[in-house]
Amino acid sequence: MLPLQHSLGDYAERISDILKTLETVENRDQVEILSEFITNYPNFTVQGVVMQIATPQIDKLSGEITLLCTVFDKLQEVKTELANHDYILAIKAYQERLPIRCTGDLVKVDNHFILKNPHNLLLNNI
Fold first, then answer.
1. Which of 3, 48, 70, 90 has the most CB within a 10 Å radius?
2. Residue 57, CA distances (Å) to 42, 83, 114 in order
3. Residue 58 burial class via C-beta count within 10 angstroms: exposed 0-12, middle 13-18, buried 19 and up
4. % of the chain surpassing 90 pLDDT
5. C-alpha to C-alpha distance for 69 and 45, rounded to whole angstroms
6. Could you give the CA distance from residue 63 to residue 80 in angstroms, rounded to a whole number?
7. What whole-number distance in Å separates Cα of residue 15 and Cα of residue 60?
8. CA nearest 64: which of 74, 50, 75?
9. 112 beta partners
């Protein structure tokens, strides 16, 4: 039986049992299995390198960047929209191949990750 209510006293234990069973049956790590079910992870910090910078918008200093990061123990591309100083830092990180760190709401859409509401972007050498 699958627990459908988070408020049940043994909810966490039942989910743990399910993950252990799937790990055995599918011969995969629990973290890998769990990552397939997560679609929204608020206040998530990613750390990686800038792989791509889209052409900035004409009317303001902003644009989409693609980071290569480890998400739930797997290397993943994460797209995010940055503006102003953060966008400039991302360009610097791209040019100098510096790792960056950024926090936001990680959302999984059709097997792709998007970091919404990015903030606290830092270059790891600063």
1. 90
2. 27, 10, 19
3. exposed
4. 52
5. 10
6. 8
7. 46
8. 50
9. 109
Q: What is the mean pLDDT of residues 73-90?
A: 92
Mean pLDDT computed over every residue of the chain: 86
Interacting residues of 82 by C-beta distance below 8 A, sequence separation 6+: 62, 63, 64, 65, 90, 118, 121
Distance separating alpha carbons of residues 12 and 6, to the nearest angstrom: 8
Q: Closest by alpha carbon to 74, among 97, 120, 118, 106?
A: 106
Q: Are 116 and 107 in contact (CB under 8 A)?
A: yes
Catalogue the E-assigned strands of the chain: 40-53, 62-71, 74-83, 100-109, 112-123
CA 116 to chain CA centroid, nearest Å: 9
Task: Give the pLDDT confidence score for residue 1 in this predicted structure.
Answer: 57
| Residue 73 in tokens | 């123990």
pLDDT score for 71: 86
Contact 118, 103 (CB under 8 A): yes
